[in-house]
Write a structure and sequence with these properties.
Layout lengths: L1 E2 L8 H14 L7 H14 L5 E3 L2 H11 L5 E4 L5 H9 L3 E4 L11 H7 L4 E7 L8 H11 L2 E5 L7 E2 L2 E2 L6 E5 L12 E4 L3 H11 L20 H11 L2 H18 L20 E4 L3 H13 L2 E2 L20 H7 L2 E4 L7 H16 L1
Parallel strand pairs: 1-12, 3-4, 3-5, 5-6, 6-9
Antiparallel strand pairs: 2-10, 7-8, 9-10, 11-13
This protein binds pyridoxal-5'-phosphate.
Length: 358
């Protein structure tokens, strides 16, 4: 069986080494030494100044919304994972969708501008599949209309924009370190922000608002993460370069094997992309369905990622988003994970080529 993804696990001894330390200190959570080690390690690896490790990538978005004191309408993408939209509804904001660019599948800056009203407070955009949004254009719009910008960077570990980590842009960029992501801590996530005051606010918020044992600075939540999760991150970080390099090679092999297939690919910068996912876009939904059927018969399970579009959720205003609606019916992500072999890539590719001719 070949699934769309398979969580990375390091050799068990590498993780076990950290357990002895946890047992020795009996410090299991609450900003422990391994949480600090992971935060420092990530900042060094990504060359960013500020980062807070959190429970998961969804709480990260919610804390960002809270810390930026956002209200009213937030312009967002219909083409993302449900957590992008559900988080802002959960925080009492109204999602206003702006359609995506057909080449990158990221939110289209021209559509953002058209969606702005006097109730708009921010833009929440996803760097889809780890491929950066048009950050410069979004920053210019935000500045012109005095809006905050949050990036959902759940897919972005290792991606760059203009030579710098993509996490370093926007008022806040969030990350997810869920098991299925390129870099993971089993469950986990975090926020990147360059404004030290904003970072301080989010630091209070992740720990019930505590500022010392008896002072509460803010209404907070429990968004902190444990030593056990941090240990997984510290170990996996040592593997991050290898994981990134193998994703790139695997993607290039798919490119070669699938060159005869009539599908389109997203536009990305090969020097700055993290190759987090391998999406292909069919010409029609029936071609997609036929391909999935043949893959499943051969026990290969790609994923319709993202389908359906978030503008079709029950709890939002269901507006049509022609580009996103069309793409989400025609796109799948092929299996891509550390350890996927060339033979497996060739097998998956062979089935897709067969499906084309059937
Ligand atoms: C995975 C993911 C999230 C949620 O992250 P969790 O850590 O699972 O809470 C949010 N947005 C996108 C785009 C994701 O892929």
């Amino acid at each position: 069986m070949i699934n769309v993804t398979k969580p990375f696990l390091p050799p068990i001894e590498e993780y076990e080494k950290y357990l002895a330390g946890i047992w020795g200190r009996v410090w299991l959570t609450n900003n422990g030494p391994l949480v600090n080690e992971l935060e420092t390690g990530l900042k060094e690896f990504l060359k960013v100044d500020n980062f807070l490790f959190l429970t998961n990538g969804t709480i990260a978005i919610q804390i960002a919304i809270k810390a930026l004191r956002l209200q009213g309408e937030i312009i967002t993408t219909p083409f993302s994972y449900v957590a992008t939209t559900s988080s802002l509804v959960w925080e009492g904001c109204t999602p206003v969708f702006a359609d995506i660019d057909p080449q990158t599948l990221n939110i289209d800056p021209a559509k953002i501008e058209a969606a702005i009203t006097d109730k708009t407070s921010a833009i929440l955009a996803t760097h889809v599949y780890g491929n950066p949004c048009d950050i410069d254009a979004i920053a210019a719009i935000a500045q012109k209309h005095n809006l905050k910008v949050i990036y959902d960077g759940a897919h972005c570990f290792g991606s760059k924009y203009k030579g710098k980590s993509v996490f370093s842009y926007g008022d806040v960029t969030t990350a997810s370190f869920h098991s299925t992501k390129l870099f993971h801590t089993v469950e986990g996530g975090g926020v990147f922000a360059s404004d030290p005051e904003l970072l301080q606010t989010m630091d209070f918020m992740r720990n019930f608002g505590h500022n010392g044992p008896e002072t509460f600075e803010e209404a907070g939540i429990n968004g902190k993460n444990s030593e056990f999760h941090a240990a997984m991150g510290v170990v996996n970080l040592k593997w991050a370069d290898r994981i990134l390099a193998s994703r790139k090679m695997q993607s290039e092999r798919y490119d070669m094997k699938l060159s005869g297939l009539n599908v389109s690919r997203i536009k990305y910068n090969p020097d700055e992309f993290n190759y987090s996912y391998y999406p292909i876009i069919f010409e029609t939904e029936s071609q997609l369905l036929r391909s999935i059927e043949l893959l499943n018969i051969n026990r290969v399970y790609p994923r319709r990622y993202f389908y359906p579009g978030l503008n079709s959720l029950k709890y939002v205003n269901n507006v049509e988003m022609p580009v996103s609606d069309s793409i989400s019916k025609r796109v799948i992500c092929l299996p891509l994970y550390y350890g996927l072999t060339n033979e497996e890539i060739d097998f998956v590719s062979g089935i897709l080529l067969k499906a084309r001719n059937s």
